[in-house]
């Protein structure tokens, strides 16, 4: 685990000392948008036109943020148009690596680099900051388009529609405000909330995060007792953003990140909803439990220094969900 400082790799754990033991996630720095005609998006520069074969996605199968982008690549039929490389699940002193000694770890299929930080310095030799996945790479301009998953999924949702002919919309105009409200609560207390609990280095920081996390799960359990999806009958990005944290909850977050007041399977609606999404196209084929379990238990020295992988419950994600 480390970061780049003026383009030089430096091995360092998250600094929580200045925040009373709280984990504070840094903002992503590459914020360009791919658009149908290459005009600029809501942030960054122009010149990133949606074209088949031009872009490459670096992911970790373990990472919930990268997982979102894999789901949207699948939902929107982008597999033939956007190539991928998947990092090795163990993120140690060198950060994410392109070692290939584990099933599913592809190596850097574009440039045959060893480390993900070399992709960042290829885009910006003086980059300072964390080296995170996902990374959306432009092969033509030789740079990073975006390293912000929330924005990458919105690009995938619509920018390539003319290329693929797939016009299914997971961010429908009429529901955007409602989606934003739900996203904000789920991001703050759950998607990022599990990390706030797990990476807390003071009791107070943990206590501040854990209450709202389970309040959100109780709220979701109630909401999903009335409707199939978060926005009603229609599946939207809000569901997929929630899914990537739910699917990791019992195997990882419950124990490893101390989110253990309840398990996912203790919430009948949420658990059935998770299975519903898992069984949907874009679900199961983007989930790699081996990478998920290995990554978290191996990569966080301060939490699990002996890298012992717990036995974990047997979960049947293929059991009928009865939410049709
Ligand atoms: N805001 C980013 C966050 C991505 C992120 O934090 N990814 C984690 C993996 S789950 C990572 O690469 N962490 C490496 C680090 O923080 O050094 C996004 O949503 O795209």
What can you see in these coordinates?
The protein is 37% helix and 9% strand. The chain has ten helices and seven strands. A four-stranded mixed sheet has the order 4-3-6-7, with helices on both faces. Glutathione binds next to α1 and α3.
Q: What count of domains describes the coordinates?
A: 2
CATH topology group of the largest domain: Glutaredoxin
Strand content: 5-15%
Helical residue percent band:
25-40%
Distance between the termini: 43 Å
Q: Overall pLDDT, averaged? A: 96
| Alpha plus pi helix count | 10
* Helix-strand sequence: EEEHEHEEEHHHHHHHH
CATH superfamily of the largest domain: Glutaredoxin
Radius of gyration equals 19 Å
Mind describing the biggest β-sheet? 4 strands, mixed
Structural class: alpha+beta
Binding site for glutathione: 96, 130-133, 148-149
Pfam families: GST_C_2 (PF13410), GST_N_2 (PF13409)
Site (Lowers pKa of active site Cys): 253, 296
Protein name: Glutathione S-transferase family protein
Describe the structure using short key phrases.
Thioredoxin-like_sf, three-stranded antiparallel β-sheet, Glutathione_S-Trfase, 37% helix, 324 residues, Glutathione S-transferase Yfyf (Class Pi), Chain A, domain 2, 7 strands, transferase, Glutaredoxin, binds glutathione, 2 domains, four-stranded mixed β-sheet, 10 helices, globular, Glutathione S-transferase family protein, alpha+beta
List the helices and strands and how they pair.
Elements: E1 2-5, E2 8-11, E3 55-59, H1 64-75, E4 82-86, H2 117-123, E5 129-130, E6 135-138, E7 143-146, H3 149-158, H4 161-164, H5 176-191, H6 193-198, H7 203-223, H8 237-256, H9 268-279, H10 289-299
Parallel strand pairs: 3-4
Antiparallel strand pairs: 1-2, 1-5, 3-6, 6-7
Helix pairs in contact: 1-3, 1-8, 5-7, 5-8, 8-9, 8-10
The protein binds glutathione (GSH).
């Amino acid at each position: 685990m480390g970061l780049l400082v003026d383009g030089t790799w430096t091995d360092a754990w998250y600094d929580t000392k200045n925040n009373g033991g709280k984990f504070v996630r840094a903002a992503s720095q590459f914020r360009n948008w791919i658009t149908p005609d290459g005009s600029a998006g809501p942030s960054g520069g122009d010149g990133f036109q949606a074209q088949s074969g031009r872009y490459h996605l670096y992911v970790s199968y373990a990472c919930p943020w990268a997982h979102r982008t894999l789901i949207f690549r699948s939902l929107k039929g982008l597999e033939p148009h956007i190539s991928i490389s998947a990092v090795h699940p163990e993120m140690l002193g060198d950060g994410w690596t392109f070692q290939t000694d584990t099933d599913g770890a592809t190596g850097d299929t574009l440039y045959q680099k060893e480390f993900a930080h070399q992709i960042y310095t290829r885009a910006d030799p003086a980059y300072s900051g964390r080296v995170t996945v996902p990374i959306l790479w432009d092969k033509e301009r030789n740079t990073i388009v975006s390293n912000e998953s929330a924005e990458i999924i919105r690009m995938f949702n619509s920018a390539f529609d003319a290329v693929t002919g797939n016009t299914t919309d997971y961010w429908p105009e009429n529901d955007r405000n409602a989606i934003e409200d739900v996203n904000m609560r789920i991001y703050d207390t759950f998607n990022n909330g599990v990390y706030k609990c797990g990476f807390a280095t003071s009791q107070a920081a943990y206590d501040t995060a854990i209450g709202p996390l389970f309040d959100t799960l109780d709220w979701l359990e109630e909401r999903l007792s009335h409707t199939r999806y978060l926005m009603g009958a229609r599946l939207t990005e809000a569901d997929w953003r929630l899914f990537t944290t739910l699917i990791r909850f019992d195997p990882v977050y419950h124990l490893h990140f101390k989110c253990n007041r309840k398990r996912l399977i203790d919430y009948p609606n949420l658990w059935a909803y998770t299975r519903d999404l898992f069984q949907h196209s874009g679900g199961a084929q983007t989930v790699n439990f081996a990478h998920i379990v290995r990554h978290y238990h191996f990569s966080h020295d301060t939490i699990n220094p002996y890298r012992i992988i717990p036995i974990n419950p047997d979960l049947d994600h293929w059991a009928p969900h009865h939410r049709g």
